[in-house]
Amino acid sequence: MMETAVLIIGGGPVGATLASELGWRGIPCVIVEERTQPTEHPKATLLGARSMELFRRYDITDAIYAAALPPEINYHIIFSTRLANHEIHRITSPSIRETIDRPPDVLARYRELAWSPFYKTQIGQQALEPILWNFAESHTGTRFMRGFHFTDYSEDAEGVTARIVEKETGRESTVRARYMAACDGGDSGIRRSLGIRMNGRGRMRPNVSFYFESAEFLNVHGKGLGNLYFTFAPDSFGVFTAIDGVSLWNYQFYFLDPGKQTCELDATEVLTRAVGREFPFTLRGVQHWHHHQSVARRWRSRRPNDALDGSLGRVFLAGDAAHLFAPTGGVGMNTGIGDAVDLGWKMAAIEAGWGGEGLLDSYEHERKPIAIRNSVISANNSDKIDMVMDETPVEIEDRGSLGELARTQLREKIRWMARQFNSAGTHLGYRYADSPIIVADGTPEPPDDPSQVVPSTWPGSRAPHAWTTDDQTLHGQSTLDWFGRDFVLIASDPAAARQGDKSLAALRELGAPTEIRVINDPILAKLFETRLVLVRPDGHVAWRGDREPIHPDEVARIVCGRL
């Protein structure tokens, strides 16, 4: 029997991130994945700024950039009738190179670059998975079992015992773990075995994705390299996505009718119609899927035989097993990555001996509201796109005055709808309000705007970013680089640092890793808002104040999950 601290079922981006977080913190785990190779289909294709901030701690962002779209090419979202026909509108965003080098003219054009070291990064899941798999496996305590099928498990008060089968040989193995994480996707067998239903709008409408290879694609439509190309012809609503920016592409064909059958489709007909011209391509994959707005009612098992007292168990849901999204906004995979980091540091704290069970109790308290928030934002974005597409008149492709008028009217609707692509607030502005391991200070909550970030140290918020060195390129140092492994007490000056001594001592008494940062910079002091700010290992504010808390021991127990 194999024994480990954490058993992870599913090796997609969420499971691989959880394994990476645990391994990075020195906690052993076993990750079980049916596939022997990374996915061939790109599936999710966007990493938001917060995910890149989290991956910066692992020192893998250079590898991600190397596998993403070409670094010198600006990101363009292009809206056309058919792709080779009338262009209606275009949105331009900074390239990877501009995000790295951050020249003044670029900073002046894109306010999003003031809120984070990163911007959006377009990378398909087929390119991201190998990077995460390699990083996860670089830790000696991580055992990655590819080509194994999870069959079933039993849970008791001390842990989980699972059976897995090697697909090629049929050989059965048993894994004993203190905790198990279900990262087994939207059709999670573990979630169903727990009898957990999904709430929300549920399945919204069908789509089909055609993943194809074509070296002629850029030439045939003549719009240049973009990361997204939306088509608004009435018989071809959908979006092309650049996968490598050279020869790999994906087309999501949208069906506005939720009852429409998607199985009988000819790829050549669909792609030719959407582009508006014939072009050579090789079909590499087809996926049938649905927009969703679904969040699991519970994110954790109930302990067997303890139904009456409501004791919580040792099995946790994360990623698509816990929530399903519409892709509009690009936050589904990113929300799952956030789940993995939140669950990972808390499991690691318990394994290290200083974290209390309250940390694991807080996982659902913190992450479920974010999943609801983000899935609703995504569904609303989808509704807006669907509405504009559905109102597109048949005259949109006419060459005469009726066509010009139709395209002018559509352009105004697209400009209104396209505000959703300014999504920095969605990715960076979430906060853990009412978390049982956050100490509230009674101040009003800052605005939660999907399109912009209000930097704040309001308890539960992501600690704000600012550059701390003269080098303000991506090679420089950010305040975010202070956070990752320890509790960090930010003090505005030496006098404030002395006031924080008892708080640090109380945390150390519990065994929690701590450090102090004295900033001595009036600009940074203003950014952090109060003289003392305690930031958790995941970079979220746990407590703040202008003087030491009256009961520092109590604060320490709260933030360590031991109260």
Describe the structure.
The longest helix has 34 residues, at 357-390. The protein has helices at residues 13-24, 49-56, 61-67, 96-101, 104-109, 125-137, 189-193, 217-221, 267-275, 332-352, 357-390, 401-417, 424-428, 494-499, 501-509, 522-528, 552-559, and strands at 2-9, 29-33, 46-47, 75-80, 87-93, 121-122, 142-146, 148-156, 159-166, 172-182, 198-213, 228-233, 236-242, 248-254, 282-296, 300-302, 312-317, 323-324, 487-491, 514-518, 532-535, 541-545. The chain is globular, with a radius of gyration of 24 Å. It is α/β, with parallel strands linked by helices and 563 residues long. 32% of the residues lie in helices and 26% in strands. The strands form four sheets. Strands 1, 2, 7, 8, 9, 10, 16 and 17 form an eight-stranded mixed beta sheet that branches. Strands 5-4-12-13-14-11-15-18 form an eight-stranded mixed beta sheet, sandwiched between helices. The protein has a four-stranded mixed beta sheet with strand order 20-19-21-22. 49% of the residues are buried. The model has no long low-confidence stretch (mean pLDDT 94). Among the domains are: 2-66 and 124-198 and 294-370, FAD/NAD(P)-binding domain; 431-559, Glutaredoxin (3-Layer(aba) Sandwich). It has 17 helices and 22 strands.
Fraction in beta strands: 25-35%
Q: Helical segment tally?
A: 17
CATH superfamily of the domain at 2-66 and 124-198 and 294-370: FAD/NAD(P)-binding domain
Query: Spans with pLDDT under 50 lasting ≥5 residues?
Result: none
Total count of strands: 22
Structural class: alpha/beta
CATH architecture of the domain at 2-66 and 124-198 and 294-370: 3-Layer(bba) Sandwich
